Structures are given as C-alpha cells and as structure tokens.
Automatic annotation (TrEMBL):
Enzyme Commission number(s): 2.10.1.1
Keywords in alphabetical order: Magnesium, Metal-binding, Molybdenum, Molybdenum cofactor biosynthesis, Transferase
Necessary cofactors: Mg(2+)
Official protein name in the record: Molybdopterin molybdenumtransferase
SMART domains, per database record: MoCF_biosynth (SM00852)
Length: 403
C-alpha cells in the first residue's frame, strides 16, 4: 500500500464520522462550554412588563415642570409586588428598580432629583421626559425570538439569556466518547517496578489529555499484552459500550508482535487506510467498526502525540461540533534544514522572536520519535512538506503550534 499524504488521510478520517451528531439534554448548570444542538427560542418576553430602571417616583410627565413642584405619593411599586391602582393628576408612586410601572405613569423621577417632604409629599427638582427610566416590555427579547443558535458554544452570557428565556435544560451535542487502549507485553503503568525488559506506558496520558482538551470523555481501557484474542475482546467491549472513537496505542507496525490490526479485523473493523507519508507517525491506521471510528496510533510516544494533534483533535472537534482548531502559522527557520524525502516531516522545535519581532523556529538536533524529553521541551512542530528542497536559516516555513 502506498503511503497516503497527510491531508488525504485527514479527509478520509473525517469522512468516517457519522452524518448525524449525537445529542443530549443537559441542565443549564451543566451546559457551560457545550455546543448547542438546536436554536434556543425565547419561551417568554423580557421584560414581561414595563418596569423601572431606577429607584425613584413613577409619575406623569405633564405633572413635572422645570421649576420645583410638589406631588403626592399614593403608594408603592416594588420588584415582585407592583402597585395595583392607577395614578392621576399630581400623583406619584414610590418605585424601585425592576418594579412594574403603575398604570397612568409615563416616566420615572430618580430619587436623587426628589426631596421627601412630610405627609407623603415630595418636591420634584427635575422634569423627566416621557419614557425616562422606563424599560419597556419586550425591549430585550420577545417570545419566539431565537437568541442563541445551533452550533454556538454556551458562554456565561448565553447561559444567562437561556435561563432568562425560561429554559431549565438545553439540547447540546454529546461529548465524543473516546476509549484508549495501550498494547504491548513490555508496558507497565507509572509507579510500577519495571523488570529488565519492561518500560512504563506513557502515551495514554498525553493522548487522553489532548482528547479531553478537545471536548471528549475518556474511557481508559488500560494495558493489554501482545495477545490478539485479548485485544479483540477489549475492542468488542469498547464498541459495545458505544464509544465514538477507539484509539489504540502501539502494535501498529509490521513486527511479529504488532497484533493490533489483526485483532481489530477479527473484531470486524473495516480498514480504511494504513501507513501515511508522515514522520513521525508512518504506521497510523484508520478504520471503522460500525459507528466507531478506529484510530490506530504508533507506539512511539512522540508519534502517538503528533498523530493525536493532527488526527485525533480534528475528528473529536468534528464529532463534538467544535470549530476546527487552526494551529498552523508561519515562521522563519532558525537553522538550515536538509532536503526532505517522501514523508511530510513534523520537526520538534522551539519558538523565539528575533530583534525585528519575527517568529523564529529552532529545530532540536535530535528528532527520534521515542524521545519524550525533546517533545516536552518543544512548543512547535516545523512542517517540512514532501520533497521540500534544502532550506537556509531564515527561510520561511509553516509551523504547528503545540500550545
Ligand atoms: N520494519 C519496520 N519497522 C518499523 C517500521 C517500519 O515501517 N518497518 N515503522 C517504525 C515506526 S515509524 C514506528 S512509529 C514504530 C511504530 O510501531 P508500533 O506502532 O508497532 O509500536 P510498538 O512497536 O508497539 O512500539 C513502538 C515503541 O513505542 C513503545 N510504546 C508502545 N506503546 C507505548 C506506550 N503506551 N507508552 C510508551 N511507549 C510505548 C514501545 O515499547 C516501542 O519502544 O515502528 C517502527 N518499526
Ligand atoms: O514514524 Mo515513526 O512514527 O518515526 O516513529
């Protein structure tokens, strides 16, 4: 099988996502950051009634004048407990912010412009124009208005307006469920005492973190040895539990103990492609098991993480309805690089600014895909396209930001 170009591999992976996104209803207090599955329509009008924007006195514009006038306070309108009567000539109603404007009133005199006299009288020192300090019914939104739209994420302000629109819960795109399965007889979890031929399984932590950063819920299937039947059984269980994406780590290459692909095929996977024109990450494998998308990542830690940024992140954002995350920016090479071969290269690098403020990417000298230390120090990947000619220091390049 020829090596698939990276862009083509991503396109084919995304094409495996089901046409319909899964949705669920969540209560408003759990909806922060979630993506709306449907438009949210106002179930009521806000404000539901004309109300006061100030603490003061509701009255009739015609009763005030530029010189001081005395008026009679005939009652009170508070938020939640309005004035039930009607006010007439020379009368005002004591009113508080948010309280209904009494019948007959057409403006509000702010408290600061009134002098309280004895015997329920006030002296007004200002003549408010009609409508002053009145928030009219429906000025915010009317019943039936769509204010937040399908595909938008629930920010604090959108949560607030959804609550005001009287929605106790919202229909949102379900978080993608991702199962992560590490394979290999040599692997032990962190905190173990490794025997002579053993190593610590590290990949699932970084891969899981990338998945979570992209809105997914994780099911950690742990470590399974190089046992095809056991891997097949774990895969079947993951599919039965309805995961959207199954990520396998390791065993993706061509060695006698690379059993992941045969195990997945036994479980019923339809292989879409295997091996891509990329370094690191050549043995990447993609297929589908019913509605579950299978992403077989190479075991080398750097390969599995670079592939997670390039493939797991986009498929999860697509499944979860999140906008694509564009990590690509341009920079200049900090050092000369040799001509590239048939695999698109993702070279671990560090960013700095030169004296002109230009973004400079310095490649690390060692690029072995098993070296986690270099990757932990990197903040970008310098992309060298297939067949790129040798490039001098200062040459423009495309980089992928890691944070
Ligand atoms: N003859 C060939 N050999 C290899 C090829 C090839 O094309 N022909 N490709 C190489 C490339 S590139 C890569 S990448 C690796 C990928 O191999 P696998 O996906 O089969 O991974 P493993 O052999 O299982 O493991 C590779 C390496 O990574 C370690 N590992 C595995 N899982 C974990 C984990 N969860 N945490 C930390 N480290 C892990 C494992 O011990 C190995 O050292 O194949 C090359 N070989
Ligand atoms: O391409 Mo492999 O992914 O170098 O280590």
């Amino acid at each position: 099988m020829a090596l698939l170009p990276v862009d083509e591999a991503l396109r084919r992976l995304l094409a495996l996502a089901p046409a319909e996104r899964r949705t669920e209803s969540v209560s408003l207090d759990m909806a922060h950051g979630r993506i709306l599955a449907e438009d949210v329509r106002a179930l009521l009008t806000h404000p539901a009634f004309d109300n006061s924007a100030m603490d003061g006195y509701a009255g009739r514009h015609e009763d005030f004048s530029k010189t001081a006038v005395e008026l009679t306070v005939i009652g009170q309108s508070a938020a939640g407990r309005g004035f039930t009567g009607r006010l007439g000539a020379g009368e005002v109603v004591r009113i508080f912010t948010g309280a209904p404007i009494p019948e007959g009133a057409d403006c509000v005199l702010a408290q600061e412009d009134a002098e309280r006299l004895a015997n329920d009288r006030i002296r007004a020192h200002f003549s408010p124009p009609k409508g002053r300090h009145i928030r009219p019914k429906g000025q915010d939104f009317a019943k039936g208005d769509v204010i937040v739209h399908a595909g938008e994420s629930m920010t604090p302000a959108r949560l607030t307006v959804a609550a005001a629109m009287n929605h106790p819960s919202l229909s949102v795109v379900a978080r993608p469920k991702v199962a992560i399965l590490a394979t290999g007889d040599e692997l032990l979890p962190p905190g173990s005492q490794p025997g002579p031929d053993q190593i610590i399984a590290s990949n699932s932590f970084g891969v899981g973190a990338i998945a979570r950063e992209n809105g997914a819920d994780i099911i950690d299937l742990g470590i399974i040895g190089d046992d095809k039947t056991a891997i097949t059984e774990a895969v079947r269980q993951a599919v039965r539990s309805g995961v959207d994406v199954l990520v396998t780590l390791g065993g993706a290459s061509v060695g006698d103990h690379d059993l992941v692909q045969p195990a997945l095929l036994d479980a019923g996977m339809v292989l879409d492609f295997w091996k891509i024109a990329m370094r690191p990450g050549k043995p990447l494998m993609v297929g589908s098991l019913g509605k579950t998308v299978v992403l077989g990542l190479p075991g080398n830690p750097v390969s599995s993480l670079v592939c997670s940024y390039l493939f797991l992140e986009p498929i999860l954002r697509h499944l979860g309805g999140l906008p694509a995350n564009n990590r690509l920016v341009s920079a200049q090479l900090g050092e000369a690089l040799p001509a590239n071969d048939v695999r698109q290269d993702y070279i671990r690098g560090r960013l700095r600014k030169n004296d002109n403020g230009d973004r400079i990417a310095d490649p690390f000298a060692r690029q072995d895909s098993s070296m986690m230390r270099v990757f932990a120090q990197a903040d970008c990947l310098i992309i060298r396209p297939v067949g790129a000619p040798a490039a001098e220091a200062g040459a423009p390049c495309e980089i992928m930001l890691l944070s």
